[in-house]
């Protein structure tokens, strides 16, 4: 019923030189981010911060869509414009996180399964009515001794596929996000194995549940060494291994792949995306859907002060521009100097 619209939305999300900005932190994650700048996580502070992120002048050159949290999609800018309308006015699509978070998986110590399927059909209809064009669901896969287990991969893939099928039924493009966490001492080889197993399981579940691959976007984690691995792989190796893994496990019918940053530094995440695009052409556009790697400099500049909003917006604009350049392999470290001039 919504085929044409889904196709157009997915294409717009991964249009040349554009990516997604993830600002869908749940209240506990937002509190963690605000704690790092000693700002209280109140409803109004969260609204003011999101307004800063949503209203960066000129962002639409680099950003195709923003992923909001339930609280945010119901909030408005200080002038009373609802956030989805403020995005639409700039030509940016509204996305919405619809999962209810990763919870302990029964019978699988150390592993999690993402919840949120109950009542999802009705919630999707409501979000579409509020102006959302796409949705996001994140599964969390941990690498550890003897994990991820096939049971955990299956449970998460099943939930991701059920979510994706419901989204397409409701006319929303599903962003399917199976995040293999960077936390731990594991090597890049272990990350490769876990990521390949995860993606194969997810695409099998999507097939079984009749999800149209042409009408979804994959949000992937990179194949990267664990954050505490004593010998971490360099930029070229991360790019090479990530591409090899994706080519093995992701069908070419998928209209685009956007990466999460997963705790990488802001410039590191840009460099990885750039290196991958330099190694093209690839079966899919490769772009970004970063949360922390886009927001971090702006968050640190803002510090809860309205006097810092304009400078914080410049910092975000700069990261958006750098990642847009990385979508076509045009990013260089020298370009980081532009921020000094901005
Ligand atoms: C922005 O953070 C998102 C929400 O996380 P919680 O549900 O844990 O609060 C998160 O899903 C995010 O969209 C992705 O992990 C990508 O963000 P990063 O920071 O990894 O690029």
Largest sheet: 8 strands, parallel, barrel
In total, how many domains does the architecture comprise? 1
Shape: globular
Ligand list = 2-O-methyl-1,6-di-O-phosphono-D-mannitol
Structure description:
The chain has one domain: Aldolase class I (TIM Barrel), CATH 3.20.20.70. Helix 10 runs parallel beside helix 12. It is built from 13 helices and ten strands. It has 342 residues and is of the alpha/beta class. The strands form two sheets. It has an eight-stranded parallel β-barrel, surrounded by eight helices. Strands 4-5 form a two-stranded antiparallel ribbon. The protein binds 2-O-methyl-1,6-di-O-phosphono-D-mannitol (5MM). The site of 2-O-methyl-1,6-di-O-phosphono-D-mannitol (5MM) has 16 residues, from helix 11.
Itemize the secondary structure elements and their pairings.
Elements: H1 3-13, E1 19-22, H2 27-35, H3 43-54, E2 63-68, H4 70-73, H5 83-90, E3 93-97, E4 102-104, E5 112-114, H6 120-129, E6 132-141, H7 150-170, E7 173-180, H8 188-208, E8 217-220, H9 235-249, E9 257-259, H10 266-278, E10 286-290, H11 292-302, H12 309-326, H13 338-341
Parallel strand pairs: 1-2, 1-10, 2-3, 3-6, 6-7, 7-8, 8-9, 9-10
Antiparallel strand pairs: 4-5
Helix pairs in contact: 6-7, 7-8, 8-9, 9-10, 10-11, 10-12, 11-12
Bound molecules: 2-O-methyl-1,6-di-O-phosphono-D-mannitol.
Outline of the structure:
With 342 residues, the chain is α/β, with parallel strands linked by helices. It is built from 13 helices and 10 strands.
């Amino acid at each position: 019923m919504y085929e044409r619209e889904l196709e157009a939305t997915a294409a717009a999300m991964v249009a040349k030189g554009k990516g997604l900005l993830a600002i869908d932190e749940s209240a506990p994650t937002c509190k963690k981010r605000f704690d790092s700048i000693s700002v209280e996580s109140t409803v109004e502070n969260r609204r003011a911060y999101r307004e800063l992120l949503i209203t960066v002048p000129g962002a639409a050159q680099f950003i195709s869509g923003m992923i909001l949290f339930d609280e945010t999609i119901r909030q408005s800018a200080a002038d009373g414009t609802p956030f989805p309308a403020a995005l639409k006015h700039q030509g940016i699509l509204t996305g919405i996180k619809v999962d209810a978070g990763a919870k302990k998986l029964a019978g699988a110590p150390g592993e999690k399964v993402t919840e949120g399927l109950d009542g999802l059909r009705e919630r999707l209809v409501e979000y579409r009515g509020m102006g959302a064009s796409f949705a996001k669901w994140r599964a969390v896969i941990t690498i550890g001794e003897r994990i991820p287990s096939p049971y955990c991969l299956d449970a998460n893939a099943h939930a991701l596929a059920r979510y994706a099928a419901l989204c397409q039924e409701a006319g929303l493009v599903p962003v399917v996000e199976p995040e293999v966490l960077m936390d731990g001492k594991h090597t890049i080889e272990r990350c490769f194995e876990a990521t390949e197993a995860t993606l194969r399981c997810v695409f099998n579940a999507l097939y079984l549940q009749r999800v149209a691959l042409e009408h979804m976007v994959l949000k992937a984690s990179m194949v990267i060494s664990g954050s505490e691995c004593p010998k971490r792989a360099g930029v070229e190796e991360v790019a090479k291994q990530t591409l090899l893994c994706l080519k093995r496990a992701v069908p070419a019918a998928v209209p685009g792949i956007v990466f999460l940053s997963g705790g990488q530094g802001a410039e590191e995440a840009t460099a990885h995306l750039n290196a991958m695009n330099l190694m093209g052409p690839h079966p899919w556009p490769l772009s970004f859907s970063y949360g922390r790697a886009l927001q971090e400099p702006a968050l640190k500049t803002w510090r809860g002060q309205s006097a810092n909003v304009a400078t914080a917006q410049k910092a975000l604009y700069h990261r958006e521009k750098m990642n847009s350049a990385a979508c076509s392999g045009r990013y260089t470290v020298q370009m980081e100097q532009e921020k000094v001039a901005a």
